[in-house]
Structures
1.
Amino acid sequence: MKTSVALCTFNGEKYLRKQLDSILEQTVAVDEIVICDDLSTDATLSILNQYKETFPNIFKIHANEKNLRSVKNFEKAISLCENEIVFLCDQDDMWIPEKVEVILNQFKISPELHVIATNAFIINDDEDMLNVSTIYDIPSKTTKEMKEILFFHQNFCTGATIAMRKEFADDLMPFPPENLFHHDEWIALKASLKNQLLFLNDRLIKYRIHQNQLVGGVIFSEQDLQKRIDKIELPAEEMNSKIIFSFLKKVKRKMLDIEKFRTIEHQQFFDLMLKELKAKKEEISLISDRKFKLLTFFYKLTGKI
C-alpha cells in the first residue's frame, strides 16, 4: 500500500521540524508528503523548502494564493494526495515511529474499513507527557455504538489521528461548510454511517497542547469526562427534564443546520442523517410528552424543540 500524508501549515515554524522528522522516521516509510501552506508569514515555507531539497521525491509543497482556513485547506491537501492510504497530519504534533506500520496492517486485514482514528499521548510545549483524561478515552469507557456517540454526543476522532482510503476521501468532496461540520467530524460521521470506521485505542501520535493551536478541546478533568460518559450511557427513560430538553434543542439545531447548509453532492448522506436525527427526536419526544407534558407543550409552542 502506497501512502500519502496531507499536512496543512500556517505559521508553524516552532514545532514543524519535530513533526516532519517524526514522519520521516517511521518504521514504514511514507511515499509522499503533500503540504498546503495557508499564507504563513513566519519561516514555515523556508523550513518546508529545506526539507524538499533533501527529499525532493517526497515533499510536494503548495502555497495557497488566499487564506483557506483549516477545513478547506485540508480539503485541498487531501484532494492532492495520490496514493491509496491518506494520513491527515497537524503541524504541531509528533508521530510515534510505528504509526504508519500499525495502521497499514489494520487496513490490510480489514478491507471493509475506510477510516481509522486512534488514541493519542498528550504533550505540552516542552514535550512532557501529560496524565490527563481526553476525548480519546470515550470509546473505551462506554458501551454505546460509535455511530450513536458521534451523531448525538461527541466527536472523538480528531483529524490529527485519522487515516483513510483514498477512494473514501474522494467521496468526501466537497467538504460541507465549516459551520456545519469540522473536517474530522465530517469524516467520522460519514464513515460511521456505513460501519466503515475503526477507532484504535493505540496511542500513535503525541498530541501537543499549546497556547497557539487552532483547534483544541481534547482534554478534560477526570470528573468532567465521567459526566460525559454518564450522559452518553444514561437511558432515555431516566433523563431528567433538563437533559431531555437540552438534547431535543441540540437535535433541532442540527436538523435546521443540515437543511440550511446541506450540499447537493452529499444528498444521500444528509437524507440518512436527517432520518437518524428524526427517529431519535421522536423517541425522546414520546418520553418527554409522557414525563413532562406541560413543559413539552411550552417548548413546542415557543419553537424551541
2.
Amino acid sequence: MKTHIEFHSLLCTYFNTNELRTLCFDLNINYENLPGNTFDSKTRELVAFCYRYERLEALIIRCRELRPIVIWPNSQALKESLEISTPDLQKGINVPNSNQTIHGSYNAVSSHGGNSTVNVTNIHHPFVEDSSSLLERSILLIQAHAYDQAIETLNSALKLTPENPRTHFYLAFAMLKGNRPKLLKLSTIQAIENHLQVAIDIDPKLGQAYILWSLLKYDYYVMNSIRESPPTIAQLLQQNWSVNQNEINEIKKHISAPRNRVWEWLQSL
C-alpha cells in the first residue's frame, strides 16, 4: 500500500477530532484554517500542509510521541510517496492570480526556527486518491473497527467508480458497524441489502456478498420472525460463487451471531 495512504489511515484510526486539534496545536498549525468540513478531510489537509511546508518529520515525530505503540512510516518514505502519487501537490506558497483567493492565515515554522504567519493561496489541494486507493484505505479502517470513517471513504470511492462490486460489498459490510444484523433498523438492513444486490449484479461470483447477505437475512428476518423477501437464503447459498478462507475469516472477525445457522456454519469453516 502507498505510504501516504497508510499514514492517513493511521491518523484517522488512532486520533479523533479533539486529538487531531491537539496535534495541530502542538505543531503550531491552526486547525480551523485547514480546509474541509469532515475529520477525514481535515486529516488529509494536515498531511498536505506538512508536506508543502516541509514539516512531515515534525508531524511523524509528534505522532510517535503521542502513539508510541503504532508503527509510523519514516518521513522520507512519506515524502517520496506524496511526490510520486500527487505531483500537483505543490510545496510552499502559490502566487495568486486574478481568479484565486486567499483562504486565511496559517502559523508555520520558518526554516530558521522562528514562527511566522503566511497567507496560503489555493490551499484546497488535498492529495488525490483514486478509487482503488480509497478502497484499500477503507479496508484498513474496517480492520481497525473505524466503521464511520470507512463508510465515508467508501462513499467517496463509489462516486469515482460506482460499478466496483467490492466497494459495494465493503460499504454494506461497514454499515453493519460490527453489530449483529437482527439488532439493526429495517431501513439500515434494506440499505445494506441494496449494496449487496448491486455487488452481485456486477459480479455474480462475489462469494463474500452471498455469505454476508445470507447471514444478514437469517439474523434479521428468520430470528426476528419476519418473512424474508427474495432472494431467499437458500437461493443465495445455492449460487455458483467462490470464496477463500481469508474472506470467510474477515466476516467472522467482525460479526458475532450465536444461534444463527449461517454464522455457525461459517465457524466450522
3.
Amino acid sequence: MPYREITIKTDDAHIEELQGFLYTMPIGGLVIDDPKDAWEVKDTAPYWVVVEDDLLREKDAPIYVRVFIDEVQVDEEKPRLDAFLKENPHMGSQVAQQTVDEDSWADSWKKFFKPLPIGEKLLIRPTWEEVDPQGRVVLSIDPGMAFGSGTHETTQLCLERLEKVDLQDAEVADIGCGSGILSIATALYGAKHIQAIDIEPMSIRMTNENAEENGVAEKIDARLGDLLDGVKGPVKLIVSNILAEILLTMIPTMKDVTEVGSEIIFSGIIVEKEQEVVDSLKAHGYDILYTGQDGGWSVVHAKRVQ
C-alpha cells in the first residue's frame, strides 16, 4: 500500500501542538526525529543499547516530523495540512515529501526505535533487537503502521500507571488499541481478558501479531469498533490513549461497562485539556487517583465511586 511521506521541520516550542493536529488526521504513521531523544538514549540506556552515530545530530538541531498519509486520502487530507501550516507558520514548515510503500516506511523508522525501560518493571523490546531483561518484564513490539511503540510520552505515561493497578485476573478494555502495546502490558501484568478496540484494520492486525509475539494472544480479543460500542462489561479497567476531545465523548457512557471500583487510565491529553477531562470524570462519579505530565501531555488515573 503506498503512502505519502511528508516531512515537517519544527522545534521544541511547537512539536506537541503540531502532533495534536496531526493526530486529528487519518494518518498511517508518524515518526519524530528529535536529536535530544537520541542523545538521551545514548546517555541513559543500558550498556547493550547501541545508538548509531548518524542519529547523533547537534542537540539544538531542528526536529523533523515525518507523517504518512494513505495515497488514497492525500487529495483530501493534504490541503488540510497545508492550510494548517499556512495559518500557523510558527508551527513548522514542510521541507520534503515522497511516496513510499509500507515496507519502506517500516524500515525507515526502525533505526529510531531502541529498547526502552519504562517505569520500575517494564522493558520495551523492538522485535528486531536483543536485550538483557535485567529483571524487568519484556514486552516485544513491532508497531508497523499502527500507533504505539512505547516511545511517545502518552504511551509511557499509560504504561507507568498500569504498574499501579492490580490486574490479576482482571477484565480490561483498551480503547484505541493501536499496536496493542497497552493490551499486551495488561496481559503481562496478569489480566485475564482484554477487549482491544480500534477503528483501523491495521491496528487490529498489528495488535494480533504483537500479542502472538508476546505469547498472550489467547487473552486479547482485538476487533474493529468505535469506542465502547460492543464492549462487554463490567471491566476492571478502561485504558485509552486517544485525544481528549474523544475521551470526553466516551466518559458519559463508561458506566454501561464499568462498576463501582473500576479504574480508568486516560492519556493522549494535552495539558491544556487535563482539567476539562478531570472535571468530566468527577461529574460522572469518578475520584481522581493521580494526574501526571510529560512533554506537554497528561495522564489521568481515576476510580469509579458511584
